[in-house]
Amino acid sequence: MAKKTPTPTPKQIDLDKDTRSSTDQFLTTNQGVRIQDNQNTLKAGDRGPSLLEDFIFREKMFHFDHERIPERVVHARGAGAHGYFQPYQSMAAVTKAGFLADPDKQTPVFVRFSTVVGSRGSTDLARDVRGFAVKFYTDEGIFDLVGNNIPVFFIQDAMKFPDLVHSIKPEPHNEIPQATAAHNTFWDFISLMPESMHMILWAMSDRAIPRSYRMMEGFGVHTFRFVNADGKGTFVKFHWKPMLGVHAVAWDEAQKISGVDPDFHRRDLWEAIESGVFPEWELGVQLVAEEDEHNFPFDLLDPTKIIPEEMVPVQRIGKMVLNRNPDNFFAETEQVAFHPGHIVPGIDFTNDPLLQGRLFSYLDTQLSRLGSPNFHELPINRPVAPVHNNQRDGHMRHTINRGTTSYQPNSLGGGCPYQAMLSEGGFSSYPERIDAHKVRDRSASFSDHFSQASLFYHSQSPAEQQHIIDAFSFELGKVTYPHIHERMVGLLTQVDEDLARAVAANLGVAVPHEPEKPMNAGVPTDADPEKYEPKAAKPPIDKSAALSMENTAKNTIASRKIAFLVADGVSLSDVKHMKSAIKAENATVELVASRLGAITTSDEESLSADKTFMTTASVLYDAIYVPGGEKSVITLAAHADAIHFINEAYRHCKALCFSNDTAPLISKTFIDVQGDSGVITGGNMQETSRRFIQAIAGHRFWQRELVRKVPA
Ligand code: HDD
């Protein structure tokens, strides 16, 4: 598909002021002096020592020596893209936010997706939460929706965040392991923190190994507040719903992708945008009237709880399209600075104690990462709305403020810049009434830690439940302390007895007969431990269809990647027909052969191989097609790598399609063409391609896992 060039947004026009291309330009120093020799330092004689006066060398090396900045303390690895957001209808009844008021108005956005735990250079396919941070460049200032692909969080109070992160990061004595929770310290912490159980269930589910950033949901997590022009507040939870559905890879596949292409998600996002199949999400909101705040069996301020969609439906209020890759990774994706405290009139906070703590942390962290309180002046961070205030100076100040006054009130500067009235768009905080004692405490309404973990588990399909059991068994299997295994199994009994039994069996520990009182080490001294004890509660509903990926959209193969296995003698008409059917659906085809270069078809035409069995792997594709052509099929059947390629895709439950005369190859694999779903063979080309496309859209045939025929 030809790449569409998006119309520049106001933010792109703003960024263009600082964007530079060196085409047809001389090489210069940073002071603009043209450089005549960029190969040799200045020396005393051509075999002599270098001279200190070589300002060209020193400037070049000085800059290089300081190229790196500290990586983000969490979410260090990420990928970003530009786009826009457009509402479907005016939301003025509930919020005065301008960017949600006019269905004809597009607001520029920059989005950064990330893993949480790994360093900048770690793999994309780690089992991890994914960050989903959106910067809206609205006419009224920046709004950052700094969310994740999981709707709840591990802890209820920001006070615990450094402990959580220290426990999951590589262990401090040997900096091992990288980008994974599967180690002693994390599970030590979690097994002492019952409030983490809901999020842990999500993190052990396939949500934590997405097929693509483009196939993830996003969540604002906390309950926020909309405020309308009359000052009326409405509670709101934000959701991003991907148009391509929510899909994951298999765990075995994730581990292999981490080896063969650690940039898998970054590349996938980049390529989708370059090819013009723009990633899209709908923005959804769950709205709760203030009067209904206490009508739920959980606390709206507790970030370990969702509001099930069956209780409050998600209204889809607009669409986000990502249509432009950054020009420069560092300047944009690395330097972008998000902050949940960046809000605009019409949006406000609630007293969720996790959100309240975040409001300090994000601004603070930019100082150590970007090095200056002027980080907001970096091109990617500056708003398109005008900025005028009396803040001055600091490292790397860009703005040249005119005038003699940098204080308020002033008369010498005509009183400028002046405060805005409400009617002029001035921000005023929601005047929530607070009448309370100052305490370090947690509300009793935060003490149900298991009911929604159970709801999540019970809402999963059998295959998804098995994946959760497998993930717990993998992660805890890496833990070397049996007492941590036992504590975790004890906690899991509170979620689901069968889950606990299955995990315990894999860990070789006993399940407590009577569900034990979970240990909760997060109790302050002098507090009444009873008060902190988790309370058993019934889930708000028994099951929620929205929580299972099984029920996601499966109606498109746009942007999917399909491998055609070919060798000399391949049928050109098979290749052509299938390729055009797949391309018509906006998916991509790559020809994989045992070598690069020209492949001669059965009718002496020539095709060009894109990849070889050495340069690619089945885990990088969504589906596999083997075209006919006797000689090609015989060659592939004799090629161990080709057979492994097919078997591995089969093991990972992907759609496979074989042309008519491929029996000699199929017989070398583990595939049973009669009994295996998602395996399409022979027949009329039109019908075959239709069935293949439908199978690819179905994503995976997990039932194949019940009979694990293929060795890893
Ligand atoms: Fe956080 C980064 C999302 C809890 C402190 N967080 C960060 C990013 C995302 C989130 C998406 C990366 C932004 C980017 O791409 O630059 N964080 C969340 C969500 C949370 C959450 C959805 C719970 C609902 N975070 C959280 C807490 C704290 C932090 C409780 C501290 C009190 N988060 C940070 C941070 C980071 C960050 C240390 C690291 C880099 C940055 O902020 O800019 O300040």
Compact overview of the structure:
With 712 residues, the chain is an alpha/beta fold. The chain has helices spanning 10-16, 55-65, 161-168, 184-191, 197-203, 251-260, 264-274, 329-334, 353-370, 451-458, 462-477, 482-495, 497-507, 529-532, 572-583, 630-637, 640-651, 663-666, 685-697; strands at residues 78-87, 107-115, 130-138, 141-148, 218-219, 224-227, 233-242, 280-289, 315-324, 347-348, 561-565, 588-593, 597-600, 606-609, 611-612, 623-626, 655-658, 679-681.
Question: Overview of this structure, please?
Answer:
Residues 28-416 form the Catalase core domain. Belongs to the catalase family. HPII subfamily. Pfam families: Catalase, Catalase-rel, Catalase_C. Decomposes hydrogen peroxide into water and oxygen; serves to protect cells from the toxic effects of hydrogen peroxide. With 712 residues, the protein is of the alpha/beta class. The chain has three domains: 42-381, Catalase HpII,  Chain A, domain 1, CATH 2.40.180.10; 448-548, Catalase, four-helical domain (Hemocyanin, N-terminal domain); 554-707, Rossmann fold (3-Layer(aba) Sandwich). The protein is built from 19 helices and 18 strands. It has helices at 10-16, 55-65, 161-168, 184-191, 197-203, 251-260, 264-274, 329-334, 353-370, 451-458, 462-477, 482-495, 497-507, 529-532, 572-583, 630-637, 640-651, 663-666, 685-697; strands at residues 78-87, 107-115, 130-138, 141-148, 218-219, 224-227, 233-242, 280-289, 315-324, 347-348, 561-565, 588-593, 597-600, 606-609, 611-612, 623-626, 655-658, 679-681. The strands form three sheets. Strands 1, 2, 3, 4, 5, 6, 7, 8, 9 and 10 form a ten-stranded antiparallel beta sheet that branches. The site of CIS-heme D hydroxychlorin gamma-spirolactone has 27 residues, from strand 2, strand 3, strand 4 and helix 9.
